[in-house]
Write a structure and sequence with these properties.
3 copies of one chain form a homotrimer. Chain A is an alpha/beta fold. The first copy, chain A, contains 11 helices and 9 strands. In chain A, α6 packs across α7 (162-172). The model of chain A has no long low-confidence stretch (mean pLDDT 96).
Chain lengths: 280, 280, 280
Amino acid sequence: MIDKEEIQQEIVQAVEKVKKTNPMAGSITNSVTINFVANAQLAVGGSAAMVYLPDEGEFLAKAGGATYINVGTLFPIYEETLPRTAKALYEAGKPWVLDPVAIGIGELRTRLLLQFKEYKPSVIKGNASEIIALAGLWDLEGGIQQSKVRGVDSTDSVIAAKAAAIALAKWTGGAVAVSGETDFITNGTVQVFSHGGSHFFEKITGAGCSLGGVMAVYLSMASPFIAALTASAVYNLAGYRAERQVDGPGRFQTQFLDELYKATAKEIADNPFDIEEAEV
Amino acid sequence: MIDKEEIQQEIVQAVEKVKKTNPMAGSITNSVTINFVANAQLAVGGSAAMVYLPDEGEFLAKAGGATYINVGTLFPIYEETLPRTAKALYEAGKPWVLDPVAIGIGELRTRLLLQFKEYKPSVIKGNASEIIALAGLWDLEGGIQQSKVRGVDSTDSVIAAKAAAIALAKWTGGAVAVSGETDFITNGTVQVFSHGGSHFFEKITGAGCSLGGVMAVYLSMASPFIAALTASAVYNLAGYRAERQVDGPGRFQTQFLDELYKATAKEIADNPFDIEEAEV
Amino acid sequence: MIDKEEIQQEIVQAVEKVKKTNPMAGSITNSVTINFVANAQLAVGGSAAMVYLPDEGEFLAKAGGATYINVGTLFPIYEETLPRTAKALYEAGKPWVLDPVAIGIGELRTRLLLQFKEYKPSVIKGNASEIIALAGLWDLEGGIQQSKVRGVDSTDSVIAAKAAAIALAKWTGGAVAVSGETDFITNGTVQVFSHGGSHFFEKITGAGCSLGGVMAVYLSMASPFIAALTASAVYNLAGYRAERQVDGPGRFQTQFLDELYKATAKEIADNPFDIEEAEV
């Protein structure tokens, strides 16, 4: 039996530990939204550090509480940096978040994402099309070989990605979060639908990337499943609140960071979610 | 005879098609303003995707409705990425926007901008000094060989760039937009002065770059001339409106994105502009 | 004897010259906060230009009034770009600001920072841990060999960095600014404590980087000591004012840029500071 109150208690603890200890989560992330990722990580109480070079990736892997890897924009040096960083994380038993942005575009991205299969990211976060495509690339159930990702956008619904998400979570032994109108989070045995958010998430760049960065912050202090759920909850709460105070995407971004900052542990744990046993 | 109402009708159609179909415009653009470019593209109803690597540039060239190339900050890999992407665009007959930022600075930039002459960008957008320098580099009328660009700023007036703009438009068969206090847009046979905007455009970074990115969004759905004119009009309208609500460049940026998002097709078409036959 | 009123007069002049002449300060800076650096430079009245390539760095070194070098995120090409740019600055007698962000992380960063010792940056700006680590790397008094930098954060107090700051200033013949709750600025013979600021500086990314970029703007028009002091004063003033109008880090950023823009020369000179002879 799943005890929802116990889950909420763990969310409260994750949020409070982060606010108290200000854990550093290093990132190798795309240059489009890198500033927003760092600001979101700081807003929830974490600390941010971003690098590009191989030995710096290895350094952060060991020094950080958890690490965020987002393949949104690749530089040539990433051919070395990303496998070496992922290997360092895996070998040190350090948790990390993978964001397979734009999977299917370009030869290097495909090669890197294939390599990550063995380094088992603790949390995989993506939109529905990305999750389905990653399961396909890794030859897991629910995946399809042909990516339906359009640039950085999803063309699939969250529900369509359930089987792929569960298969990925079973493979890694961690958690998978599928972001969409309602977010889906699973650790392979239980599944959660997290509610809230805002239609403005699609009208700004970086809502998804910064969610991944914030998951890495909580992952410094909580299990993959609780980290993914806590980050989704604070995003859904802050997005919902920010939307009610603005009428455009510019002020939404600004207000959203403020709401991330102001949300209390209890409010985050109380953000609506449904939890049940995982089933495809 | 030029029918202004017909032009306005085409602007309305461009705006409405973009809001309805959410076209993707890929970009290879500078890292200083890349976030603002993406957010502006999303605010007007488009979708954004940014890359750095050669095969990814080729992929976006084929997959996107139109592509934005801004040479503001160059990485070494751009020696391959930019010519291959421009060639792919040209060979596929796909429209693209060139923003020759900081023309005259550095050897690679000059070499890349020279190569672009044969790949005929559908829209060229720049400040007066950049347009004059590009016409000079391409050995066209109205150009001067010695760039007067100061970093990323113009030291020439929009009127001084008229001849260069018309010559460039005649060479490409597309449109040229010279941004300044009043914007000048031409397709080589007609010319437009688009009014509005804000003095804050010079107090924030990325007003020009994001204008180029938004031109690429409209270029997915309209001719080069209408795309350049529509983007200039929505910028002039949103800038004018935003300025009236703020007293500094920070809130201006935020409010400007909101006004981009809220402007209706009719309001954009009604933003003041003068149109006449092109003459040097 | 130190004449505080004379110092204030020099601050007024620096601010007014910048507002009047709009000097360009080129930057080679990290990609996380590059947009915020440029916007802060524009807000105080300067002009910004950012590059990555070696010959472009040399070009900006010669063309700009002063240059800002921040090693926060390194690309492989920086192995060439940064030494060539620093050498060009040194040989041309052009002033520049060094921001030794994340000193201690990675082999290339250490090697570059070592090379900079001979090119004597006019202003060195950092948090306490960075300043202590740089003095250590350069084998100067007050430094320690083992960096205590945690990612990009300081683990030392400003006072702990006094000896290192004075030793660095004596070595370069320029100024050193240690940012913290109270900022410490010295030219090796006098020392200043500059008051104000905001607790939100730690809750956004780029407060430190953009301060360095703004120092480069004032350095185009003033001595290293006055430039460092003026930039610290406007940051402390604008931070203090912005904090009083907001309740979160999102709106703080926006409001802070507005306050940078609105601060007058007299207000900046009047921002509280203590000045005395330098002593360890």
